[in-house]
Specification:
33% of the residues lie in helices and 22% in strands. By secondary structure, it is α/β, with parallel strands linked by helices. The protein has a single domain (48-297), classed as P-loop containing nucleotide triphosphate hydrolases (Rossmann fold), CATH 3.40.50. A hairpin with a 2-residue loop joins β1 (49-58) and β2 (61-71). The protein is globular. This is Simple sugar transport system ATP-binding protein.
Length: 305
């Protein structure tokens, strides 16, 4: 198991440690160094969003410390951690709600400083929170355009383009494979998975390039969680960079391309899918020793093994 950011990786015998270059003649680059540098520059240019060693404190409480991650187009980066791991603070930094106290925030490879979620949204970074920011008694199409209503006419003749709004909602939901019986039905009559899917379609429609999803499957059953994961895959296949915040490795592993693990505000490493198994993710999140101790306590006193 290898951490892709090199923070928790051990050196392999006979191979230079990550961050070091192979020795070569003085003044001469190691073989392939030019190609590696070009590939690294290309990868950096492809990153939609990146944070480097960001930290955040609230008074004497360290909420986040030296956390780094990147989001690339057409990939799902899963941020995993138990309650109190720092996931909410990281979301608020990524979404522009909080400015980091330390570290760097980059969008398209250039430093960025947001003063509000609107600034982040203007750069194509959309966040879908657990409460979805929707009104249950309003119709699906009204919620879809809430705060960004299309209008016809000018001045005192301006009016809500109801027919156009309904048409757009039907088309956008259909294009993502979302089957809503009637866009006039109240939002509260939809299932949890359907409400999440509408929120995802809304973010895509309004130009999101990076989609941050805050625990979208936490309150859903198995079938509805599968529905949401399917729509996340569709957003990824459209070229969006997706940040999937969750505490459930069984939901994260099938959809994720990269996994950032947090524990008490610190990073346990960022792993590629080929570098870690689902069981290893679970063990890293919960702590392998703690799980073994719990299994022993629950075994009715039977000797381990």
């Amino acid at each position: 198991m290898t951490a892709t950011d090199g923070r928790s990786s051990d050196a392999v015998p006979g191979r230079p440690a990550r961050g070091e270059s192979a020795a070569g003649p003085p003044g001469q680059e190691p073989p392939g160094a030019g190609a590696s540098r070009a590939a690294g520059a290309g990868e950096a240019a492809a990153r939609l969003l990146e944070v480097r060693a960001v930290g955040k404190t609230f008074g004497g409480v360290i909420a986040l410390r030296d956390v780094s991650m990147r989001v690339c187009p057409g990939e799902v980066t899963c941020v995993l951690g138990d309650n109190g791991a720092g996931k909410s603070t990281l979301i608020k930094i990524l979404s522009g709600m909080h400015a980091p106290d330390s570290g760097e925030y980059l969008v398209d490879g250039a430093p960025a400083a947001f003063t509000s979620p609107r600034d982040a949204l203007d750069r194509g970074i959309a966040t879908v929170y657990q409460d979805l920011a929707m009104v249950p008694l309003m119709s699906v199409w009204r919620n879809f355009f809430l705060g960004s209503e299309p209008v016809l006419g000018r001045g005192p003749l301006r009016r809500f383009d109801v027919a156009g709004a309904k048409r757009v909602v039907r088309e956008k939901l259909r294009s993502m494979g979302i089957d809503i019986r009637d866009v006039d039905q109240p939002m509260g009559t939809l299932s949890g998975g359907e409400r999440q899917s509408v929120a995802i379609a809304r973010a895509v429609h309004f130009g999101a390039r990076v989609l941050i999803l805050d625990e979208p499957t936490s309150a859903l059953g198995v079938k509805q969680a599968g529905v949401v994961l399917r729509y996340i895959a569709q957003a990824r296949d459209r070229g969006l960079g997706v940040v999937f915040i969750t505490h459930n490795p069984h939901h994260a592993y099938p959809i994720g391309d990269r996994f950032l693990l947090l524990n008490r505000g610190a990073s346990l490493g960022e792993y590629g899918k080929g570098d870690v198994t689902r069981e290893e993710l679970t063990s890293l999140m919960a702590g392998g020793a703690e799980l073994e101790q719990l299994a022993h306590e629950l075994s009715r006193g039977e000797p381990p093994g």
